[in-house]
Amino acid sequence: MIVHTVRARRSAEDFPRGEHLAAKIADVAADPVAVEPETAEMVANRIIDNAAVSAAAVLRRPVAVARRQALSHPGRPGARIFGVAGTYSAEWAAWANGVAVRELDFHDTFLAAEYSHPGDNIPPLVAVAQHLGVRGADLVRGVATAYEVQIDLARGICLHEHKIDHVAHLGPSVAAGIGTMLRLDTETIYQAIGQALHLTTSTRQSRKGSISSWKAFAPAHAGKTATEAVDRAMRGERSPAPIWEGEDGVIARLLGGPGREYLVPLPAPGEPKRAILDSYTKEHSAEYQSQAPIDLARRLRQRIGDLDQVEAIVLHTSNHTHVVIGTGSGDPQKFDPDASRETLDHSLPYIFAVALQDGTWHHERSYAPERAHRADTVELWRKISTVEDPEWTRRYHASDPAEKAFGARAEVTLTSGEVIRDELAVADAHPLGARPFRRPQYVQKFTELADGVVDPAEQRRFLSAVEALADLDTVDALNVAIDPRLLGRAPTIPPGIFG
């Protein structure tokens, strides 16, 4: 890897185009390096993972809204909308499928200086691949690039420090991934990256306070916007430049300012793109930093026994966990039984309380209004708080995979005065966890979440297509068909501009 120093530049400076971060990312995207087998295997795993969570979310209102919008935009050759027959405009298919993947907060994650859900790259790349008849092997190459770029940006550039939403790294990664997949030249990829970043940078209010369904729409919007940016760049349109380093660019005006330097690692020429192997999926439908605490709660409940004897629970954890999903956020909504599902998903006290009581976690039942309003749950929930522990913060940012951790130490004080302590560094499903996810676990997640949604024969057909991904002449088979009668049970959506 080559670590690039990135900072703001004055317009009068001599700053060669080849030194722009967008140009360096374009060079990485255009590098014809082969995809290693382990990386290709993980790309297939994440396609299965995305299909699993999309199946579980297919009847939810935000997904139905996005699908209804996309259905108003038929396209030829076109791309596929998850669960639906026919072909539709590629950017709108990317939109609908992106919302389906993101709605339940149940797919993969990478955490470093910034947060990311790199599986959000897959829907727009698949949509473009279907529209243009791209081979499976080229889709794999594009996905490997998209993961590499988003993860490397997340390693080097912190967005949330300046209240910028993490999808600002997703726009450039989608543009780069499409560039690789279509074998575009570096100039076109450079222009597409700049446009994509410029148009997908927004504030973090989408993940603060009363969190709305826009949390699911935000990455889909980034994927759709980046797809359109590539289309314009292919037609010869240019972007603002230098987009990160310009005098009025992202770093100078939205991030650390003229005096701030960022260190962004990128693969050297000829170096394989392996970043996808550093990301991790979820066993539980909840914000990633709650994955290990859920497993910790399931383990602790046996030691605690009668939860009525709990006086207080303090979770010692990283700064990120404390201020984003813990009591360090200062969000009273995180203790409100009437809060949205998206808000409860970002409330570690709520999640820990329910996991303690139920000994499990479910993508629907654990968030049901009647579950959040249970009197004993509300009582336990309000006894739980978080504090930052410098050691957990250090481990959160550690570069050594064996040290890097997203867990917590729980201190449970009982009414008797006894204190029960336990901790868990990584989730059970993490590559270093008690039960790491491999192909059988991804398949199991798909079959469980698709049960009652996707016909068993269709499940088998889809899994066979993914197994043969690198040999597919086209990737139309990656769509999953669902009985229209089941889709008809989705919420009724009132008409909008698009019908």
From TrEMBL:
Lyase among keywords: yes
Pathway: Organic acid metabolism; propanoate degradation; Carbohydrate metabolism; tricarboxylic acid cycle; isocitrate from oxaloacetate: step 1/2
EC number of this enzyme: 4.2.1.3, 4.2.1.79
SUPFAM superfamilies: 2-methylcitrate dehydratase PrpD (SSF103378)
Nucleus among keywords: no
GO MF, one annotated term: 2-methylcitrate dehydratase activity
Listed GO biological process terms: propionate metabolic process; tricarboxylic acid cycle
Catalysed reactions, semicolon-separated: (2S,3S)-2-methylcitrate = 2-methyl-cis-aconitate + H2O; citrate = D-threo-isocitrate
Domain of life: Bacteria
Pfam families cross-referenced by the UniProt entry: MmgE_PrpD_C, MmgE_PrpD_N
Domain MmgE/PrpD N-terminal residue range list: 19-259
InterPro entries according to UniProt: 2-Methylcitrate_Dehydratase, MmgE/PrpD_sf, MmgE/PrpD_sf_1, MmgE/PrpD_sf_2, MmgE_PrpD, MmgE_PrpD_C, MmgE_PrpD_N
Keyword line: Lyase, Tricarboxylic acid cycle
Domain MmgE/PrpD C-terminal: 284-470
PANTHER family on file: 2-METHYLCITRATE DEHYDRATASE (PTHR16943:SF8), 2-METHYLCITRATE DEHYDRATASE-RELATED (PTHR16943)
Subunit-structure text: Monomer.
Role: Involved in the catabolism of short chain fatty acids (SCFA) via the tricarboxylic acid (TCA)(acetyl degradation route) and via the 2-methylcitrate cycle I (propionate degradation route). Catalyzes the dehydration of 2-methylcitrate (2-MC) to yield the cis isomer of 2-methyl-aconitate. Could also catalyze the dehydration of citrate and the hydration of cis-aconitate.
Family in the record: Belongs to the PrpD family.
Protein name (database record): 2-methylcitrate dehydratase
Organism whose genome encodes this protein: Mycobacterium terramassiliense
